[in-house]
Amino acid sequence: MPLRLTSAKHTVPIATLPMVNGKMYMINSPALVQSAYRAKNLSSDPFMIEFAQATLGVSDEAMKSVKRPEFIPAFVKGIQYFYCTF
Fold it and tell me: Which residues touch 76 (CB under 8 Å, ≥6 apart)?
């Protein structure tokens, strides 16, 4: 469902969606979206890494080297480049 239809249907500014392994937050308020983008501790990197691992079929053992803090920015940049070229 496109974001416009979702935010038009739900009038709450933010909602918590229970997931199997945690929670996901849906933000419908433009002001809250901007606040979330400015937050230093908000990152989608762990989700991108997990998604790439599942999509590419990479083992947990192979991902150990990728999940090193010094390697994560380069890996995420590669993921973004890969998915933006399609």
Answer: 45, 48, 49
pLDDT tens digit sequence for 3-27: 555 556 657 888 888 888 788 888 8
The CA-based angle 15-30-27, given to 5 degrees, is 15
Q: Provide mean pLDDT across the span 25-36.
A: 85
Greatest C-alpha distance within the chain: 44
- Which pair of structure tokens corresponds to residue 68? 């090193």
Contacts of 48 (CB under 8 A, 6+ apart): 76, 79, 80
pTM of the predicted structure, to 2 decimals: 0.45
What is the radius of gyration, based on Cα positions, of the chain? Answer: 16
Residue type, 11: T
Q: Give the start-to-end residue ranges of the domains of the chain.
A: 1-39, 43-86
